[in-house]
């Protein structure tokens, strides 16, 4: 019996990497994308192969439509697509709204919204004819919290993906597809360092009702549950993985 196929964007580290290894453990074959961290992607692929998965890795900046086409060429070569974990995303350094530039906003929305929407659309085109498939968009608690004086632009992109999740889920529910969003809170990953503040999660942990940060594995467990038949009546909403925040 063939293994189901899952595409994970942004899988070289953090939440994407944790989702990849857990998906391999749960019986999925994988197509994994990365933008710049080839060594990280190769390490994740090797870990997944050790768990029995067939893995293809593809370099892709999801802000580039041609790169998305390359990703789905690899998906089509690997077999019918059963699941998408739409995870690729970026964050900028902490600044106020008055300091935002057009270039920063353009890049933020090209990757986090436009690219993610195009990836989801390409997945739907492959899932709908089979009337089978699950998409999980990785958004953020920032969509609710706003991230004032830090990442308002990032928060806005994730809010856009929350409502996109609802709209897409309603479009495809009648064809047997499910679409969900998972919104992580303060998770210990490298994204904080990429935003220029590597200690951010630990510093803000006191704001979390559970009084701790989360980890990528906890997010991955939630995502893989949503991909499973145990979540067969769950679609169109945002599941917060935030420690109550």
Describe the structure.
The protein is an alpha/beta fold. It has a single domain, classed as Rossmann fold (3-Layer(aba) Sandwich). The chain is built from nine helices and seven strands. The chain has helices at 14-25, 38-50, 65-78, 102-127, 142-145, 152-172, 191-194, 200-204, 216-227; strands at 5-8, 29-34, 55-59, 83-86, 133-138, 177-184, 238-241. Strand 2, helix 2 and strand 3 form a beta-alpha-beta unit. The longest helix is centred in the middle third of the chain and has 26 residues, at 102-127. The radius of gyration is 17 Å and the shape is globular.
Spans of at least 5 consecutive residues whose pLDDT stays below 50 are none
* Count of distinct structural domains: 1
Q: Look at the structure and give the mean pLDDT.
A: 95
By helix and strand content, what is the structural category? alpha/beta
Order of H and E elements: EHEHEHEHEHHEHHHE
Pfam family, one: adh_short_C2
Keywords: Oxidoreductase
Enzyme class: oxidoreductase
Family: Belongs to the short-chain dehydrogenases/reductases (SDR) family.
């Amino acid at each position: 019996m063939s293994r189901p196929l899952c595409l994970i964007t942004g899988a070289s580290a953090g939440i994407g990497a944790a989702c990849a290894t857990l998906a391999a453990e749960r019986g999925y074959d994988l197509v994994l994308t990365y933008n710049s961290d080839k060594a990280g992607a190769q390490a994740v692929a090797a870990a997944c192969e050790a768990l029995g998965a067939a893995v293809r890795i593809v370099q892709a900046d999801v802000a580039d439509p041609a790169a998305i086409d390359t990703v789905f060429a690899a998906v089509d070569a690997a077999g019918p697509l059963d699941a998408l974990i739409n995870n690729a995303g970026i964050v900028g350094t902490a600044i106020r709204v008055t300091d935002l530039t057009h270039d920063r906003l353009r890049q933020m929305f090209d990757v986090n919204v436009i690219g993610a929407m195009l990836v989801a659309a390409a997945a739907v085109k492959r899932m709908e004819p089979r009337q089978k498939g699950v998409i999980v968009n990785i958004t953020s608690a920032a969509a609710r919290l706003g991230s004032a004086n830090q990442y308002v632009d990032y928060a806005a992109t994730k809010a856009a993906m929350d409502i996109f999740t609802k709209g897409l889920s309603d479009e495809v529910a009648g064809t047997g597809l499910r679409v969900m969003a998972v919104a992580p809170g303060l998770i210990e990953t490298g994204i904080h360092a990429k935003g220029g503040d590597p200690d951010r999660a630990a510093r803000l942990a006191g704001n979390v009702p559970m009084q701790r940060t989360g980890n990528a594995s906890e997010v991955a467990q939630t995502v893989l549950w949503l991909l499973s038949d145990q979540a067969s009546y769950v679609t169109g909403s945002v599941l917060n993985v935030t420690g109550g925040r």
